[in-house]
Amino acid sequence: MASSSPRMYRTTSYADRLDDEGLDHLLDESDDEQFKWEGRGYGFDGELGKAEKEREEQRRILAKAVKSGDVDKLRKLLKSVGPDDVVDLINEHDGKNYSALHYAAASNNVTTVKLLLKYGADVNSVGAACRQPLHLAAAASPPKESKKGDSPRKTSVVKLLLSKNANINSQDFLGRTPLHIAILHNNSTAEGVLLANDDIDINKFDHHRATPLVLACYYGRSDVAAVLIKLDAELSGIRGFDENMDTPLHIALRERHLKIAKCIVEKGIVNGNITSLLTESNRNCVEPIHEVVKGGHRDILKHVFKECSDVSDILNRWDRNADTPLHIATYCGQYEITKMMVKKGADLDSMNKDRRTPLHLACAGNFQTIAVLFVENGADLKASDDDGLAPLQVAANSKSLDTIVALLERLRNLDLQTAGGRNDCLGPKLLEWVAAENKADALQILLQHGTKLHGVKENDVLGYILDAASKGHTETVVALINWNREVLKKRDDRGRTPLHLAAEAGREATTNELLKARPHVDETDVNGFTALHCAAENGWVRTAEVLIRSKYDINKQTTDNQRTPLHLACGSGHFQMAKLLIFKEGADILLLDGDGENCLIQAIKGAHENVGRLLLSHEKWRDLMAITCLHPNSTDETTTPMRVLIEHMPDIAIYVMDRCISWQNKTRLEFDFELLDDTFSPWRLRPKTAEKDANDLHISTANGLEDHHVIRVASVSLEPNGLTNDGAHVSTDDNTPIDDEGVVPEGAHKDDDFPYEENGRLKKYAMPYTTKASEIRDAHPLNIMVSLKRGELLAHPLVTSLLHHKWTSNGRFFILLSLSFYLIFLLMLTGYVVVVPPSFYARSANTTTGVTWFADGEERWVEDGLTPEVIIFGLLGDWVVLVLSIINLLREFLQLKSYGLSYFNFGNLLEWVLYTLTVLFVLPLSDIQYITGIHIRMDWQWQCGAVAVFLAWINLILFVRRFAALGIYVIMLIDILRTFLKFVLILALFIVAFSMAFYMLLMNQEPFHRIQYSFAKTFVMMLGEVDFGDIFHDQNYLNTENTLAGGEEDFFLTNLFYEGITYTIFALFFVIMSILIMNMMVGLAVDDIHAIQQKAELHRLVMQAELVMTVQQALPMRIWRSAVICRKVIDMDEELTGLSKYYRAYRGYSQHVKKAIARAEETANMVDMSQEDDSNNRFFSDMTHRLKVMESKAAEECEKRNIELAEIRADQRLLRDRFNGVEKKLDSFLNALTDIMEGRAADAD
Fold first, then answer.
1. pTM for this structure?
2. Counting CB atoms within 10 angstroms of each CB, which of 84, 339, 428, 539 has the fewest?
3. CB 115 within 8 Å of CB 78
4. Whole-angstrom Cα distance, residue 480 to residue 229?
5. C-alpha 583, offset from chain centre
6. DSSP string, 757-771
7. How far apart are CA 404 and CA 1182, in angstroms?
8. CB atoms within 10 A of CB 45
9. Which InterPro entries match (predicted)?
10. pLDDT in tens, 617-668
11. Which residues neighbour 269 within 8 Å (Cβ) at sequence distance 6 or greater?
12. CA-CA distance, 504 to 531, in Å (whole number)?
């Protein structure tokens, strides 16, 4: 039941005794407290007089006589006391604050009471706890006289006290009247006497707002309750007694005092207010009608229904959980009561706060007769509760299988009797939901009673297995297989069978059950995926193991792109799956997919480093790397795995390079360079005109072995006639022709496709994959390392060994030769500038009069004549410079043609300007010769020469930058210059600000006379050339600057007209420009230098690689191909002699070899990943599997929690009822304890 059942009432406990000691103790003669009278202290203090002792003795005799009922002794005592003292003696209270009449009434001794009243006892004397004698009489046992045959009422102390005008409605400290106390002590005699009195108030409340009728209902006093009801005791409107604010009818029903409850109901019927009585709610919104149906009091309900014509207001009442009486009766399984209420028109579709109808509750409790009753009377079978569940779904959740079958049978019969068949869809929907929610028990029952599922189609049932397999509902899958094995052939819109879906979702148990049914294991979907493909793609290792045990082909390729399970596992980054397929099951790692990519390419594209390392630990790792593939970021650019690793996985690239170094027998060190220098490797050479099916192509692997796997076709770009784009002629040594398509004709590689000799040297017939020098350089692995600043790769022994080989093969000779030619050019240009006079030295120059000179021109340029310096640099130098400049311009032009737009950079543009200006400078354009053979240069030529010689030396700096030893300082300078250029705008703004101020204040002085002069002077002042004395104190200290005595010109040119503001501006200038700005620029420079020094090793490696690649790019292919080798072997037993030993030491070669050996040994000692099966790997594998399973089941668990919540609510209701019972007893105890404490407090007062 969704809503909670009504709470048990927590009533206040009414003690059967009036105080904590009880009446028996009150009448105990051994209690000395009763002899301690008020105002007398405790006992006798000192010597009392004779009268006082006599008085005390009288009190003692009085108490004992009253307590024991000794009438004779009492009468004798009362007669012996004087008339004036007897009243005082009788009405005097003892230590318990009781008088003699209290004790007499408590003992219920009529004779004693009469005698005391005769002598003047106070009938309304108030004793302890505000109790009067009548209260004690109401609680007393039946009188002794009743045992002698006298009528109890005639001999009742209560009646006797009332006859003496005792207050019948008096209340004690708890607000209880004598009638309350009589009912509490089951004193029927007292009850009869009290109720017969006309003055009694039968509706009097005590302090707990309990009337006598409430107490009678609580304690089951049906006789007195009947009298009270007959006397028209209040039946409704009573709000009290406990915190639930129950009415008498609530209490009678709760305590199951049905006789009283019937009396109240009959009285309500007679009075015409039965509806209000049954619908009066307590604090918990529980009404008596709810208690009637909960307790199963069918007779009461039947009587109400019989006597009341309209009971709709009663039947549709809600409690605090919005439960109607029909809800409660259904939850309790009260069939007869539910039948009566349905017959009287109870709302069958009323919903409680959980939106559950009575039909929901009947289905949840498996009350099939009640559920059928509701359906027959039109209950809504499609109503949904808060969980979205219809009644039949609730029945399935609660495993109310009998109810499901009974309802479906009844529905089928009802639909057959009607033309509409409005319940046709319930069967299919229920079956679909049961299958989707893995309610296997319910599904089995439904499938067994298939004839009762009106509207269910077999094809729909077959489809349920797809969802069950995907969700891992193994029990449902088994039930469907047992029902019809055709479910194994069902496919979804992707053509996937249940086995595909179970494997895709990693449902190991479900997959195992499906395989037990022996389906066709080679079934594929529309893309050619088997179940193993699905498991591998999603990384379900355990599921894959189950499938592999069923003899799945682990190398089966898909139809759409020829991918194997290993391709999918690697592409998705599933390490454990890849490890299983490769090392345990022996999957072929060299198979290529439809795009010509192997499993390593898939792992690289997915950026799965761990999978890549796993693959490269395989013995065939070298073949994995020997392939061309599409670049991950391009659709047409080809690349190799090594290049992609350098770009995206440098750590894996280091691992590959480690494996390229082998240390054999501790004497032979071998480097494998082919992966780093693969220009001529066969996997890079893809003929453009090859149009054969890729599956028919055969290529050679790096080991020279034939490989027939699928490869992709890429193009080779060659220009016609065998000319490369940079003009270099590409042909074989035996003049093998190259066709117009740039394809090497068949047979050009002779009989062996492998381009390297046995010693690792390049064969003469080997061809590069492209002849574009710029493409080779840009795509070269070394250049990629440089562009990405991969210092850790550049520092690898394999890379340094390759760079060393290229440098020693031809790089050093070319670079030294280039440097030599450039130094000759620079020397000749500089010498020419030194020995040739500038044009401004000539006063006049013409062909007739010759040249006349300024200053020492004649002496300097003419008188010495043709000295050796003049002959070398003046007569020959200009022609040497001109020839070298033209050669360099041609070289730059060829590079521009070869490189295209990539040619344009600062260095190349600088060389264009340098050589162009040099040619213009040295050309003999003037006809005037100041010495035979040496012409005067025109003004513009001399200016061109000044710029050219400046750029020539700057270019030398850029040339020197290529050498690691000096290049680091050039890099520092360039970085500092870049930083300065970022700051120059701010600096310029400060210079403009101060320049304008100085121009306005010091315009009369020469350095600031023009605006451009002011800018220049301000900039120079910033560098330290202030000339403070010349500006401010050019005249003497006698202050003659204000007179014209020294002459007007001196006065104007040196005077400081605005001294105050000028000094202020100068002070700001010194602080800002000379201190702040200059120090800030120094700090920026220091930071740049520090940053470069921290990466000095990286810069050194980058410069080395750039130098080698620059040399290779600049050389014709015929030359640089001689430096290409696939491997290099160093025999450590070989003895070095002569200069070789010292050269290697100088180059750090021995250190380089040591690093290479250390790398090789480290790689050799690494544990083969294929053999790793330690506890950690197993632990992480298990954890990974568990996490994936948990993730996949998270949604299902959430749904299950909703169902469990409903069950928890039902359990909570049971616990709440039990707790209420315990709480009731606890409240009774606490209230009794409170009464005791309050009574003692009142006595103390």
1. 0.62
2. 84
3. yes
4. 66
5. 34
6. -TTSBBPTT---S--
7. 41
8. 8
9. Ankyrin_rpt, Ankyrin_rpt-contain_sf, Ion_trans_dom, TRP_cation_channel
10. 898 998 889 888 888 777 778 888 999 999 999 999 999 999 898 887 777 8
11. 303, 304, 307, 308
12. 7
